[in-house]
Each structure stands twice: as structure tokens, then as C-alpha cells.
Amino acid sequence: MSKRKGRAYRRRRRKGSVSLGTHAVETGANISHEPDFVQLRKWLKKKGFNGFYLVPANFPDIGRGLMTRKALEPGDLVIALPEKCLLTTNTILRSYMGEYIKRWKPCLSPLQALCTFLIAERHFGSRSPWKPYIDVLPKTYTCPVYLPEEVIELFPSPLVKRIHEQKRMVQQLYLASKCFFGSLQPLFSELVEKVFTYDTFRWAWCSINTRTIYMEHKQSEFLTQEPNVYALAPYLDLLNHSPSAQVTAAFNQKSKHYEIRTVTKCRRYEQVFICYGPHDNQRLLLEYGFLTNSNPHNVVYVNKELLCNHVSEKDKLVNRKMLFLQDEGLLENLTFGFDGPSWRLLTVLKIFCLRAEEYLQRKKVLLGLSITADNELGSLELAEKICFHLINENQKAMQNISRLLNEIVEVSDHLELVANVRREELQILQASAEVLQNMRVTAPRRS
Questions:
Q1: Side-chain half-sphere of 252: how many Cα atoms within 13 Å?
Q2: Which residues constitute the signal peptide according to the record (predicted)?
Q3: 63: CB partners within 8 A, 6+ apart
Q4: What share of the chain is helix, strand, coil (3-state, %, to 5)?
Q5: pTM for this structure?
Q6: Domains and CATH numbers, the chain
Q7: Measured between alpha carbons, how far is 6 from 239 in angstroms, rounded to an integer?
Q8: What is the pLDDT of residues 275-324, one digit of tens each?
Q9: Which of 12, 19, 98, 426 would be 93's cystine partner, CB 3.0–4.6 Å?
Q10: Residue 292: phi, psi to the nearest 5?
């Protein structure tokens, strides 16, 4: 039996999906009869949940999701999950683990507490009251922290940097938690070193990072003052993401339920989606381990190193320009999109293209004013050079991935993920190159 890889396993093709957004019709195969889901639904019913017109289903090219058995109108309740179904830090502080957390110094963060509890409950198996929920959680993930280094290095360099930062953060969080794990030895017959491994911690971190809903809690004196906004929401967390889904979501203090309402219609037997936020595919991959087709938020990032490599070495003001742009906060989120280079990227390039005698007018560039025709044209040409450099880089990466797909079968799923990222970047850059060519043709001529 293959391991469940969750919402990350299959690439999200949205061509056929309808609901809470604009999609084409697609129905899924009802899987509510599967033993794990039968037990989960019974468990939820005992806790007061009865919204079972949403049923788990398998959808082509997407995997598991929730399908509605009745038509939904704008304003309708999609799901209302009772508070007692939610797994939060309050749940943990009231549990057997609470006394250990309360006396531990320095305090754990909310995230550390949730990771620790999830690992312990999975280890307890049939003795855990959370077993029906844990049994339907993915057994592994395609989040970047699970990817081997040889695959990570094939991603675009700005994304590689963010993946390494994320991996370091998870590793540091694990190391910072090890002493607390040791204090829990009385709870286990097995050595805690075998229970709380890096692999189990990584699984717990991914389960929380990819599946929690945002829910503010009162700060606890027993936890650090980091934002305590996590809640694991059984069943509700089967709802998949679509960038076009329109819903409202919040915890209702009167009913003590976490409620999601639709803003748009959804027809019977269609998949119900929610929107995790206006995220591009790099963010979705980092945080949730999947990509979406036709994502309107997709862009290609240009990092500072690439900029430096394309700026003229003869420019004696390059360091001053870099410092000025840094002080203005303009060296982050420089992007190419389907509609060409972003305003920020073009503005940065115009600053770099200023001659020494024009440098005093740099503030005017930030206001969107044109300095000279030479500067306008120079910045477009520089943008084209960077764009074609990135096109070339993506084409080489695609060739490399194609070769590796034939050589290393074990990581073919991971390589396909990289190939999809590279393919999308190539499409965006090619569209940007066309836009830049048109902009250059219509730009004022040099004097």
C-alpha cells in the first residue's frame, strides 16, 4: 500500500474543478466508506459535528478533497467545526502533557508544543484519543524539507535560498526541543530518543504547517509570546486550495464553532475549495508542498546577486546606488510577470542606469518621473538581458532534469515538481520578453 502524501503529492491541475471560484465541472469518487474516514466521521459526530453533506472524495490530478452533496448558495455555511474538535495549545495544556509544559523553562513556543503533542499521540497509537484524526493525516509530505539536496539545487536560486532557510529553521527548532523531549521520559516505555527523532519532528512540523487554520488564542503564561494562531481542524483540513475560491472563515465566539461560508455558488457533487491566500507557486510549495496551474499570482524572482552580475563594472556609483536602494527597501520582491517586469524591478534598473551627472535626480525615479530617454531605454535593455539570462538558465535546468529523470527513478516525483516550477518560470519569462520587446519599440528614442 502506498504512503499517503497528502495535498502535496499530485500537481494541482485546476482545469476541471469547480467550486467557490470559477472552474469547469469535475466530480470525484466518494471515499467516505474507507475505514479511516468511517472512524473519523464517527469520532467527529461524538464531538458534536454533523456537517456530513461534505464528503471526502478523490479527484483526478488533485487527490483527496471534499465534495458537496448539496448545492451551495452565496452566504451558505460550508462547514462549522465545534471547538472541541480543534487541536490547539489549549487542548495540550489541559492534557497529560500540560504539567510538563507548565514547569518547563525556558517556555516552549506554541509550535513546539503542538509538534511535541502530535508526535506523542501518533506514537501512542490506539491509546490516543486523537487516533481517528492522526490516521487520516499524510504519512509523508512533498514539502521542501523532505526533498533531497540534489533535487533542491535544481530549483531557481531565490527559491533554493528560501528552502535552505526553512530547513535550517526546522532543524534548529528540533534541536531546541530535544531537552524538553528528555523531560517526557516518564510518559514512555521506549527511550524518548527513539520517539522524538528528526523524522518524526519533520512530519509533525509539516502536518501543522500545511494543515492548521489561523485562529488567535490568548497568550499563555506557560508558552513564549510568539503569535499563538494555530489550530488543527480535522475534516475541515481536507478542503483544498484554489486561488479563485471566495470564502469567509473565522471562529464564531457565540456558537463556539469555526465556520467557513461561501461567497459564490457551488453545484452539487462538485469539489469545494477554499483559498489559503494570494500566494504564488513558490510560496505554495514552501508552505504547503504543492503547485497550482494557472496561478494568477505566479512571478519569477530576481535576486540581488543576479542584479549585481548584470550591472556595469565601470559604474563607480554602483555601491552607492545599491545602498540607496537598500535604504529605500527596494531590493526585495523584484519580479517578472506575464505582464512584464514589475514596477519595483524597472525602478531599480532605472536607478542603476543613471549616469553620474543624473544621480542627484534618483528620488524623481521613485516618483515615477522620466529622467531621460537614454535612461528609459537603458533600463529596458538591462531588463531584457536579465530576462534572457533567466530564460537560458531555465532551459538548461530543464535539460538537466530531463536527463536525471531517466537516470534516477527513486526521486522522479520530486524531479517532476522541479520541472513544473521551471516550466512555469519559462512561460512567464517568455511572456515578459515579448512585453519588453514591445516596450522597447515604443520607448522614446535616444537623443
A1: 15
A2: none
A3: 6, 7, 9, 10
A4: 50, 15, 35
A5: 0.89
A6: 6-85+235-288 (2.170.270.10), 89-232 (3.90.1410.10), 300-442 (no CATH)
A7: 12
A8: 999 999 999 999 999 999 889 999 999 999 999 899 877 788 999 999 99
A9: 98
A10: -120, 145
